Amino acid sequence: MSDYLQRNSPSQSVAFNDQERMDKPKITAVKAESGNLALAIAEAALERKAGELLVLKVADVSYLADYFLMMTGYSRVQVRAIVDAIEDKIKTECQRIPLRTEGKMEGHWVLQDYGDVIVHIMMPKEREFYNLEAFWGHAQQVKLQINNSGI
Question: Which of 9, 19, 100, 132 is the most buried (most CB within 10 A)?
């Protein structure tokens, strides 16, 4: 005999109305707001000379976020400058602050979580070692058109 009590499970099958299932809106497209946020973050990072900028649309392969941005800072000072530039630009243009920021004090790998967009700013050694591009290689890569005045 099991110690598990089945108090929380229904004693009978529950009927499911197919019409209810059809009436619920389906989320199939990524919100335009997420894409605009990702582009604004990329622009702020490029203003601080972030290297090897990569934007991945992960909405189709993960529930964690809609976009991942990965970039390289070539010194701890530059990594922090990129982080600050992103925070300032997004706060003024999008009226958003990151839900969480990790690693800023160390400056080797900083993660900024904006909910629908997650940003990784890494030193070259960390970027090569963790190789997030390979882990998320099945996600769609967003091509950025970069000109002298930004994206």
Answer: 132
Structural domains of the chain in order of their starting residue, each with its CATH number: 32-142 (3.30.460.10)
Integer distance in angstroms from the first to the last C-alpha of the chain? 65
Strands 67-72 and 51-57: antiparallel
Instruction: Give pairs for 132-139: CB < 8 Å, separation 24+.
Output: 132/68, 132/70, 133/54, 133/70, 136/56, 136/58, 136/61, 136/62, 136/68, 138/61, 139/56, 139/57, 139/58, 139/60, 139/61, 139/62, 139/68
Are residues 74 and 51 in contact, defined by beta-carbon separation less than 8 angstroms?
A: yes
The DSSP annotation for 76-116 comes to HHHHHHHHHHHHHHHHHHH----SEEESTTT-SEEEEE-SS
Q: What value, to the nearest 5°, has the Cα angle with vertex 69 and ends 50 and 48?
A: 20
Average pLDDT over residues 110-120: 96
